[in-house]
């Protein structure tokens, strides 16, 4: 970014910091050297997204990240209806997120308790071939041979998993999200202007400690209670059979009542409170945060003790009692997603936005996608572990050593090939559309270079790049189709499992050979695809752990997915913007206060989103002394369409009106960036000759060979906007159009330390840069900040 191999960090740490060229470190002390050009600075935050190798293992938390994104996809609503509609939308997403935690822990229980401890350890054939399960075999005199004791021991696995998730959430909050924003006046709920202000302006938007702590406690307790429910279901079902112990039966009833009461309290904790953004929400509900996980863990210990109590004659066979839980979870998720779709549609109809993706259904569609990912991961690991434990047999069939996973997982696997076929058909349709667009672009490219020698190969590459760049706008179709098929086929799978109580292949017995073969084939293919999906998650994380380039690629995914605070799921990967946005806003605020100067903050790709978010956090007086330069920006094309409540036309117009100047550069060959679609004055209100957008820029800069480009100019697409002469022209123009401001105070050292730099930067995985032009002693200073993201 700084185009210099010698750089120094002027503030920040190894995780995220602001850098300058070594020659510019003392720019404030020698302003006479920088009268003509601004001094560049770069803000590098790659350590927040693609830092060390362990960060790649966050891929396993992908369903949690996706459902957290769904929370922020609510439609814009009018101010009078805002409170209630927003609360209901957030409540439904939080409940979907809670169901994903229960699903993940239930999958761990299925593997450890059902497949390993209940089925394999209880089968002589399976236990004899798995030495590590030999001590659990039901032999005479073996203390661990009783099913309840085997289950209690195996419960340590999902319990440890829940504890690990709690620890990771607590640790990442302390490391990444605990940065306080600049001090602002709190916004009261009764303020008539509060509802009209963009949400990203609110002082508590990037600091929600209270909600994250409450959700972390509730989800941790839900995980412990899920393990306890699996233990209690097996023990109480045995105790209620004829000849069971009445004392154990009574204890079982007491355990179940306690589990139901604790589960209801967990749901209440999740439902009772949403985000509070009017002020930094740094208070803690200590009674909930400290008591709830500990109480759930204590109840789990009592349930394990109850299950491990001696029950002579108890043997394990078939599926572990409680296998219906997966069907119940699937139905609950479907009902919540449908309710979310109804609420989202009503909100959209109240304030229509023609540019919004999927109209009011995007939050529900993305929540359903999170549920599908969770189902693939949970079902995939269960199917693969069952195949591994069963050796040469097939789980659930006559040649198998064990019964296998619950029937509903087999039915869900059987519908995966149908869904993939639908997506392949949709992909083929858009591939045909892209081919037709490419033919049209070929004619446009030829017409735009009259008189130049024709190069059909180069023309085809330019046209193909432009056509493929438009595929980004097709994403709503793929998300919508995936969500729709997940709802329909998932409901059919649950119904088929409950009606037949057999795997699809067996359920087809007695029908024609073609139907039976088709059912068996789809179930087998789907089972392997579920397992393959989970293996790909593991392989991707393992490769990224060893390969820095792959880790940077995953960092791009985190650039988008972890930009938003954890408002729905506390176990999602941490939000880097809760560190980066305060960094940038603090830098801009303190620099303008110390120098009384002006600055330009610029950002590329995801860096432009961070730049806008940081500018929103400034007080109005400081914001008026800031110019914004964005390029390759997804502000409107992606964020405005998918997150209209925060980056839709209303918020972008408000940002446009509150800063002094804004210019946005874009190309037709860019698959991510685009125009922000804000007509009118880009700078001061008296100069209406400039729109915010400038583009589309030429790409490539020259079609053929010229004196300035003797070799073929590359097709840049989403990268290297700074290589275009328009970039330097617009940057200089923004600095010129910023108004002069009276000198408020001399540039000073802060506590005798190195003086702050003359700029701030937008963030990007590749790092952003800033540039400042210090004024003469006693005079104002100018600053320009540019940022670039690899995302």
TrEMBL record:
Keywords: Membrane, Transmembrane, Transmembrane helix. The keyword Protease does not apply. The chain crosses the membrane at residues 85-108, 151-168, 217-238, 250-271, 291-309, 325-343, 364-386, 406-431, 477-498, 518-539. Residues 1-35, 738-791 are annotated as: Disordered. Residues 1-12, 20-35 have a biased composition (Basic and acidic residues). InterPro entries: AB_hydrolase_fold. Residues 745-765 have a biased composition (Low complexity). This is Integral membrane protein.
